[in-house]
Structures are given as C-alpha cells and as structure tokens.
Amino acid sequence: MMETDQTRLLDALPGMVWTATPDGSCDFVNRLWREYTGTTVELANASGWISLFHPDDLAVVEAAWKETLSVTAPEEINVAARLRRHDGVYRRFNLQTRPLRDMAGNLIGWCGVNTDIEDRTRAEAQLAAEKRLLELVARGLPLPSVLNELCLLVEDLSSGSVCSILYVDHDGQRFRVAAGPNLPADYNAALEGLKIDPEYGPCSLAVVSRATIIAADPPRDPRWAASPWPQLVTGFGLASCWSAPIFDSHRNVLGIFAIYKHVPQGPTCQDEELVDRFARIAGIAIERTRSDLALKASEANLRRANHFLVGGQRLSKTGSFSLDTDSHEQVWSEENYRIWEFDPAVPPTMEMVAAAIHPEDRQQMLKVFAAATQAKEGLDVFYRIVTPVGGVKHLHTVMEIISEISDRVVYLGSSQDITESKLAEAALKTGEADLMRVNMYLTAAQRLSKTGSFTWGVETGHLDWSAESYRIWGIDPSLPPAMSMVLNGIHPDDRERVTAGMSEAVQAGANFEMVHRIVTPAGVVKHIRSVATRMPETTDGPAYFGALQDITEAKVSEEALKASEAGLRRANRYLKAAQTLSQVGSYTWDVDSNELDWSDENYRIWEVDRAATPTVDIILNAIHPDDLDLVVKTIDGARGSGENFDVTYRIVTPAGVKHIHTVSTRIPEITDRLVYIGSNQDVTKDRLAEAALKASEAKLARANRYLKTAQSLSQIGSFTWDLESDDIDWSDENYRIWGVDPEQPPTIDTILNGIHPEDLPRVAQVIADGKRFGADFDVFYRIVTPAGETKYVHTVSTRIPEITDRILYLGSTQDVTISKVAEDELARTNTYLTAAQRLSQTGSFTWDVHADEHNWSEVIYKVFGLEPGCKVTMDMMMTAIHPDDLGQVEALIGGAQIGENFELEFRVINTDGGIRHAQVVGHRIDQIPDRPVFMGALQDITARKLAEDDLNRAREDLAHVARVTALSTLTASIAHEVSQPLAGIITNSSTCLRLLAAEPPDVAGAFATTQRTLRDGNRASEVIKRLRSLYARRAPTLEPIDLQEIAREVFALLASELQRRRVIVRTAFAGDLPPAAADRVQIQQVILNLVLNAAEAMSEVTDRVRMLRIATRCEPDGHISLEVRDSGHGINPQETEKLFEAFRTTKPDGMGIGLSISRSIIQAHGGSLTAVPNGNEPGATFTFSLPCNAVEVAGLNSRQA
Amino acid sequence: MMHSNLVCVVDDDESVRESLPGLLNSYGFVTCPFESAEAFLASDELTSAGCLVLDVSMPGMTGPELQIQLLNRQIDVGIVFITAHADAMLEAQVLERGAVAFLLKPFTEEAIVKAVEAALGRG
Question: Which structural domain range is residue A999 located in?
C-alpha cells in the first residue's frame, strides 16, 4: 500500500506510472495514467488491463509478460506497444517494467513507467523514409519508380492512407498520373488527362490556389456541390482527399501529392506535416530528374548536331569536330578524318594534329591556338597540312566556343579542304584575266562554311538560333527569334511553298530540306538552303534541329552560269542569220544526257523537220555508210576524252548526198559534264568544186603551186601526201617551216625525225588513223628543225575523196610558235576564244604599232574590202573608216601607241559604198615588252547591227503604238480641250454677225468679237499642234531640249484630264536646268506615261488629296532629273523592278508596255528610270534622269544653226 | 416668285465668259459672268438671277454640285448646263433635278438662245 504522500508524488510525475502485485494485478496507477486511458485501476483490472493495448501489439506484450513471470529472478523488461487513449486513439509507448524486491531479494511487486514515444517514432520513420527517397533520387532511379516508392512509404507511415501523385501539364491545363500504386486503376484512369478546374475537386483547387486543400467529406462539401467528383471518389470507396501542391525551387506548381482515406476525416497536425513534407520531397525528386533529363537532352542535341554536320558538310568538303581544351578530348566527323587522312579507328590527339600541320605553318598555328584558348575566343585560320602519304592540303578552319558548357573551354569547329581553290588560285595567278573568276570561286567556296543552325519546337513555337543564323536572317541577335520573324522574312513568292513544305514534313514526321529566298529587314534578298532533322525523343511535341546556309552567292553564280548558258544560246540564235548565208548550222551537245540543240540552219542542212527533237541517232542514220565508222569513232572519242573535234563526212538526205564539215569545242565553263558547242557547214559545193578542180592530178599540182605563192605570204606551207606510197610534195614555205633543204625531197622519215619526240606518238597515231580510215587531220604538235629550233606547228589535212584508188591528202602546215606560246599563257581563255572565233568567223590579227605591221586573217581583209594577203598600212585602214568613227579610231591608236588594250565598234565604207560594222578587241602581247604589239580579234558585226537596227525600228514602232494608246485614253479630255475654244469661236462669230446686221451696225463690237474669235482659233490650233507631234511617227532625233518646257507642254495637254480626275498638280522646277540632248517626243512620251500612271494610281483615293508633285533638279553627277510623286496606292518595294517588265499591267485596259518602253527610251538616252515607294506617306515616286553633256548639246546647236 | 431677266454665266473658261454674254446681250438679255460656282454663291446675283448658264466641269465645285446646293437652299432658277464632255448619265440626272437644258460645246446660237428663253419663261 502506498502512502498518500507517495501517491501524490507519483501523480505529479510527467510519465504514466503504475504498480502491480507479484502476480501482475495492478494495484496503483498515477493520475496521468488515468487521464490518458480514461479509466481507473479498478475498472482496468475488471476489464483486464491487457485490453488497453493495440490488438496488433497484444501478442508481443503478453509474450513478454509471460516470459517475465516464468523466470525465478526476472529483470527489468522493456517493450514498445500502442496503448489506447480515452478517445480511442492509439499511441506508441515504451513500457519499462521493473521488479520490486524486499531486502531479502523476494519479489514483492512490479513498478512500471510508460513513456509516450509516438511522436519520436513517427519522426524517425519519416526521417528514414525521406532519407530513402532522397537516396533513390540521387542514385538516378527512374522518376516513376521514385514516386511510386514515395507513395508506398507514406502509406506505410500513415495507416489507412492511399497516396497519389499527379503531374501538371506544361500548359497548366491538365493532370497526368505520375504515381498511385494503391489507388483503384479505374480511378487513376479517370485522373489521367483530367482538365484542371478548381470547381471539380481538391487537386485542381490546390493547383490554382497553390495551397493544401482538405476535402474531409466530399459529398457534403459545398465546394464540390456541382462537381461529379464526390460521387466518383466515393464510388471507389474513398471518403476523404487531402491535396498538396508540389512546387519546384522556383515555386512553380509541378503537380499534386494527395492522400485519400477510406473514412471521412480531416488530417491531424502530424498528417498535415506529413503531406507537406512529402509533397516537398516529390518536388525535389521531379525537379532533379527533369534537370538530369534536360542535361542528357542537351548532350544528345550536341551529338545530333555533330552528326548532322557530318552529312551536311560532306557536300562542302567540310569536316567538323569538337575539342575539349581541358581534357584535350576531340570528337571528329567522318569527313574530318577523310580530310586529314587519319585512321577513324584511332582517336585523334593534339600531338597528331600538330604533327600533321605543315612545318612552315606549325609554329604560327600553335601560337594562334594557344592565344585563342587563353582568351577563350573563336578561331578562323588558313593553314596547310601534310597528310600521312605526304600530300599537302590547304585547310580553312573555323572554331567557336560552345557557350552552354561554361565551366571549361570546349570548341566546336569545322575544317574545309580548300586545296583545289588554293591550287587553282596559284595556277591562275599568272593569268590576270582569270584571276577575277578564281577569286569569285574562292569567295563562294569560303562562304560555304557560313552555315547557321537552329532548333525549332513545332508546338511550343520555341526557336533557338546560332549567331550565324541571326547574321543570315539579318536580325538583331538580342531579339529572341520567333516563327513570325521566319515567316515574314521568307520571300513572298516562296512563302506559300515553304510553309506548305514545312507543315507537310511536320505532319509526316519527316525531315525537310528546301531552297528559298528570304528578305532581311534591311531589304536584302538572300537565297537560303534549310535542312532540318526531326528530333525523335523530345517530350515537348515535335521538334527539329537544322542548319541553314546562305547560298545567295552560289545562286547568283548559278544564275550567272545560266545567264552565260543563255548567252551562248542567244549567241547561237544570233548566228542564225549569218549562218543561213554561209550555210553553217550550229548546235550544242550535252554528252551525258545526249541532248542536242540545233540552230535553224542545222535543221535545214540535215533536212530534219524543225519540230523534231534532234538525237544522236538521227545524225548517225543520216550519215553516209562509208563515213559512219569515222563519225562513230569521233563521237565516241569526244564522249570519252572531252577533246574537241573537227571532222568532215557525208550525209544522205532526201535532197542527195551532202558533205558536212563539223567543228566542235567543249564549253570550258561547264566543268561538271561535257557539253560541246559546234558548227556544221554544208561544204558540198566546195567539195564538188574541189572535185571538179582536182579531178586530175595535173590540176591539183597547179592548185598547189597557186597555193604556194599565196601561202608564202601568210607563212603557211602546203603539201600533198600519198599515205601509201609515201609520195610527199611540199611547198617552198613548208620546207622553210621544217628547216629542211628544198633540194632534198621529203620522206616519211623527214617528217617523223622532225617531230618532237614527246609529240611523235600522238602524230603517228593521227597518221595511222589517216591510213586506216582516211580521216582528216587537224593536229598541233612541235617540230625540231635540223638547226635545233623548236617550233609549234598546226597541220590541217583532208583526204581528197575523189581520188579513190589511193589515199591522197592535201594539207597545210602553219608555224604557230608565237601564238602557241601566247596560248600556253592564256590556255583557259583561249580554248573558248578559239571556238567562239571559229563559230562566229571572227578574224584575228597581230599589230606591231610602231612598225605599222599588220598580220590579218581573211575575215579582216573582207571587212576592209581589201585583197586578202596584201600589205596593209594604217593609212589604208584610215581611208576606209567611216568619217564619223575616225575620231574614236584615232583615240584608239593613240592609246595603243602607249600600250593600252582596246575595244571598239566602228564602221568601214567599202569601195562599193557598202557600210560594214566591225568590233575589234586588242590585247597587248606581254611577251614583247619593248614595244606595243597587239593580238586581237575583229568581228564583222554588220549582220548584228542590221538586226539591231531592225530591233530599234520595231521598238520605235512599239513606242509609237504605246504613245497612241496612251493618247487614246485622253480622247475625252482632248475633245474638251478643242471644244472649249470652238464654243468661243462659234459664239463670237454669231455675236459678230448680229452686231454687223444691227441697224446701225456695231462695227467696234464686231471687231472686238472677231479678235476674240481669232484668239480662240489659235488656242484650238495649239492643242492640235501638240497632239500632232505626239501622234506623228518619225525617226528619233536628238536635239537640245529644255526638260521643263517640254514637261509644261505635256501638262497643258493633260490639264483637263487631270482636272477631270480631280488631281491637284504642284510643280517645283529648278530655276537653272541646263539643256539635255534628247528626243523631244520620246521624253514627252515618258512624262505623259508617268503622269497618267500617277493619276491612275490615285483614282481609288477618296480619303486624301490626290496630289501630284512634279520636281526637276540638277543631280550631282551632272544628270538632270524629273520626279513624279503621287499619293496613290503605292508600290511594293520588292516588286519595283517587275513594274518595268513588258506586258505587265495592273490596269484593266492597259497594254502594260508603258513603263517598259519608258525605261528603254530613258536608257537609250543614257539615263535611268527608277521607282520607289514614298517613305512615310502613301504613294510612289518615279524619277528619270538624263545626262546633260554640254559638248554634245553645243554640237547639236551648231548643226542646227 | 418673279423671274428677272438676269442671265448669270458660270464657266471657268475665259473664252466662254467673254463670248457668251456678248451674244446674249445682243438678244437683249442682261448678263453677268462668274468664273466659279463659289463666286456665284457668294454674289448678290444669287437670288436675283432668272437663268443660270452653268458649265459642268470646273475646278472646285462643279456645275451639278451647284445645282444641288441651289435646290437645298430652295433657290429656284432655270439652269442651262453647258459642257465639253458628252455624258448621257449626268444629263439625265441634272434634267431629273429640273435643269432646263444640257448643251454640248460648241453649241449653236439658236440652241443657247432657245434654252435661255425657256429658262426665263418658266413658271
């Protein structure tokens, strides 16, 4: 029994204390014990105190108690178990029970202290759970597993709980189920993709309110009264839901952590803490995993970028690589290995790279590289490398630091093999003429590496541009790129095609590649190649990684090539007329595609229907069977070798057998494939004449003799050669060329011994072919004379077909040493020149200015109407030149005397009075430095000039039609202009008659009215005069004009038209405009056209004044200009040039030739006509300028005087 | 309202302003020339004119516009339109609004005199 004091003391203790008899019957409990259990010792003994324990812990407690009682000397026992509180809640206690003994050591009872360890246990469990979760996150376990584990742990910590984790979508619109291992699968399915709506349920509300939301009893909760959710959740046997938002470190809501209970209840303080804590852990897990993913994705992007560059850059012979300057780790693209010729299996090291750099460049390169890495800057260098097999390559390397990786310097770079351009550069530095072209190629080649890259998220619209991309688009790099910039930047003509192509690719999940134009904000039009590769593994919807390349230069040069091809075709057309006369047809032949393009004359020669497409088969079918082998062999040879050919053969046409002479030259500008341009000449007549002439050998010999004398002048030797008997007959000149004694008849050995050993096999082959096939030859080779002099000679030889019993050749050999040397210097340009000259029958010449020595080919003699071969002097030429061109020719001679190259068009008057037009080009021969000696070409361009005259006449006719058309729109106004004075005349005349008929006649009044009549008559006649000059058709004549005066005349004519159209005219004429030499009517036509266009452009304007401002001024360049500025609908700045295209009109009744003709008129005057939109107000301004050459004007004045 | 004998000629063309009053004067009409519709509207003759010989197309206010102005101000005056542009649509419009005649320049003496007489004799 306890003392009262002792009882009081025990009651005051903070722990639950009890005592019991040795058999275990409780005989005392302190106050705390009673308060906790809500019972007394008596009641506890009556109901069995054991019933206070949690059923799950009973077994443990009973076992411990039994074990204690069974031993004779029990020691202290410790056991943890849950005890029921008075309100039914169980809490965990540590039960510490000690035996009470008397002095003898006999058991006299038990004393126990129960310590509440509920809070501690819970905290420990939470801590363990948190630790475990963070470990899982740190170990990089996949996020779904981590979140699943989190749910299970919380369910373990808080019995009767079912956990759920939801993600919030990127757009914040919907939920995605992240975890919910013990939630019914159907409930999870209902949550998946659920729209976030705060009226729907607590999870949604938690997202929106960013706070924990407790739904203790949903069906009775007014917040969800209108929602189907309470029914849904209770349908799954769930009674309450506590939802906490999951935040990331930036307090963005990532998702929801929710605990469901099977009975309606709110959370305890501990529960609330639990929810918040684990929501936070879920946030850490999600954020951490996502940033890991982002890191991986960006690494993958980098790899992909490199991968892409491999493919893209192979085309431009550009290799790419990355270089980590800390670890010296390098990653190379395949192409880079190819360029350096390294084994792709061996990882490249800095040492390998340094060793491969050309010794002369190595030190410099290492220095530059070290400086760049130190300064953390990019690099752009040209240098040479020596490949493992000893080849030297020129490389261009560009390196940029990858900014994303900030803690160390990592370069991404590209190396381009520019050896070919370098070699070409070196080779061609000697030819000044070619240098420019090479530079152009070089520039284009270097620009190739200027490739920008981008990423594009299709759904997010997110764009990411490299610096180069910004440069290409011409956009300020500080602006974030947007799809609208891209779409606006695409050239309007390409926009539809590009967007269609992109959306097609997006839909198909495909990559895309396209070439299109863009217009930069500065208005620059660029050609762009975009290549985009779909990124497969992003979660943000479809995305592309791509590259874009500014191919404007390439496009421009492509267009230039096209233009030059077009130029050739034009030249071909151009030759037509001339060819018809000389019966020469021309063609082009693309060997790869076998495409042939024939001139009209060629169709005529082959007698093939013009509608037919010419083919090689058509040609082969027409060829004379005896010549077929020859032609087939020639064509096959050309296909294989790309060499030029010159062949004569027969064809069989409906009209009979024709002899055709074909000369063909490869077009050197087209390097990627073989394309020949050539001419076919119908030489039947010559051949027949030849046949007639050379039917007998006697006649032949005579012809040869004749040739001898003629050719000695032109240093051409001729010969006949019987290939079978080796009977050779040489002209004197031929002996001279070969340096052989004329007394010694030449033999085949003379020839073979004389030919330069290096050229001998080639010439022998030609001779052998001649023997076998009877082919003509046309061969350049070197000979070495017995005196040891090396000469370049050109031999052309033709078999005489009429002599059928043996193979007899007639030929000529020309000493071309001088021109050959020059040719070597200018090999590239000459190939083309030679072909062009042959085709256009251009004559060539050399001219020693100081010695007045001229060496002419036949065409030039023909142009000057001189006997071919005769000795020419400057005086002879000057007397033949048209007096109007003498001044320019004299200036040319003056320049030539000091060695200036020249180019001139001039006219020659022949003795029969005919005028020939010629164009001459002369280049000084550099090899003769001591005095000016020129070689050049002279082309007879009479036919072209006549054609141009025809063209000019046609243009004048068209201009006249345009003028009349423009005037016809003025009919009503002109009628008004005439009717006005006419009304006055008639009225005045009536008045006059009445005044005279009055009694007495009013003579003074009649006099006054008659004067008025006269004045009105004059006024009408002025109108008619002005009109007549515009309607008249006459050849254009230059005269000094006052631009303002003629403009005023036009306005006088247009006054009533402009009034009718409600156009207000303001003029600002410069006071002191000098006169210009121009055709008055044509310039008036231009002004008329511009003013009418301006009026037309303002016809729809109703909200502002239809203002037309005309201004004239003197330009700084000595031109005078007239400006027509309207306030109309304006013009598209991108399409101003199209305005000037013929037959382009926006007017329903216009012909569309007005502006086109106006521009050609102004250009013919040496001026320009331009159109620009008005800056910041509506309308457009058209301006034309005319040169005003005071000398020219003075000349016109004096001629008119 | 009484119609006076006053004929106002409104035309921007000087030769009409000089010649037409002379002819009409010789027929005994009193005339007064104006070079624009605005000038006529601002003048004292606005309410005293019995007939208006009115050019259709003028800079500023046109003849038909003046006709509408007069109708709005309820000024009743016989109008003879003269014009160098044949325009059937316009002719129908102005006649619909009460114009007496629509004469194309050049017109005959007889036509203009008859038209002016008709304008004055009306009402």
Answer: 954-1195
Identify whether residues A979 and A1007 lie together within a single domain: yes
Q: What is the ipTM of this complex?
A: 0.85
User: Based on the structure, what is the number of domains in chain A?
Assistant: 8
Q: Which residues of B touch A994 (CB under 8 A)?
A: 23, 26-27
Mean pLDDT of A439-457: 46
| A695 assigned to some structural domain | no
User: Is residue A962 a part of any domain in this protein?
Assistant: yes
Q: Which residue has 């101000």 as its token pair?
A: B73
Chain B nearest-CA distance from A983, in A, is 4
B26 at interface of A, judged by CB pairs closer than 8 A: yes
Q: Which of B58, B105, B116 to mutate to test the interface with A (most CBs of A within 10 A)?
A: B105
B15, closest residue in chain A (CA to CA)? A984
Give yes or no for A886 touching B (CB within 8 A): no
Tell me which of A20-24, A837-841, B44-48 is least confident.
A837-841
**CA distance to A396, A417, A535, per residue, from A305 (Å):** 20, 21, 10
Question: Is A1005's CB within 8 Å of B22's CB?
Answer: yes
The pLDDT of residue A1068 is above 80: yes
Is the domain of A55 the same as that of A181? no
Residues of A in contact with B27 (CB under 8 A): 994
Residue B52 DSSP code: E
CA atoms within 13 A on the CB side of A742: 9
Q: What is the pLDDT of residues A357-407, one digit of tens each?
A: 988 888 888 888 888 888 888 788 888 888 887 778 888 787 777 655 556
Same domain, A1056 and A1151: yes
Q: A1111 CA to chain B: closest CA distance, Å?
A: 23
Same domain, residue pair A379 and A479:
no
| CATH number, residue A1123 | 3.30.565.10
CA distance A931 to A920: 20
- Decide if A1112 contacts A1043 (C-beta within 8 A): yes
CB contact under 8 A, B106 and A987: yes
**Dist. CA A1094–CA A1092, nearest whole Å:** 5
Instruction: Give the CATH number, domain containing residue A764.
Output: 3.30.450.20
Tokens for A820, please give them.
């050959």
With an 8 Å Cβ cutoff, is B38 touching chain A?
Answer: no
Is the per-residue pLDDT at A681 higher than 50?
yes
Residues A175 and A312 both lie in one domain: no
A16, pLDDT greater than 60: yes
Write out pLDDT tens, residues A497-551. 888 888 888 888 777 778 888 888 877 788 787 777 776 655 567 777 666 667 6
Mean of the per-residue pLDDT values of chain A: 76
Q: B26 vs A994: CB contact, 8 Å cut-off?
A: yes
Of A981, A1005, A1059, the CB nearest to B57: A1059
What percentage of chain A exceeds 70 in pLDDT? 78
CB A146 within 8 A of CB A129: no
User: Across the interface, do A980 and B18 touch by the CB < 8 Å criterion?
Assistant: no
* CATH number for region B6-121: 3.40.50.2300
Instruction: Kindly state whether residue A948 falls inside one of the protein's structural domains.
Output: no
3-state secondary structure at position A84: strand
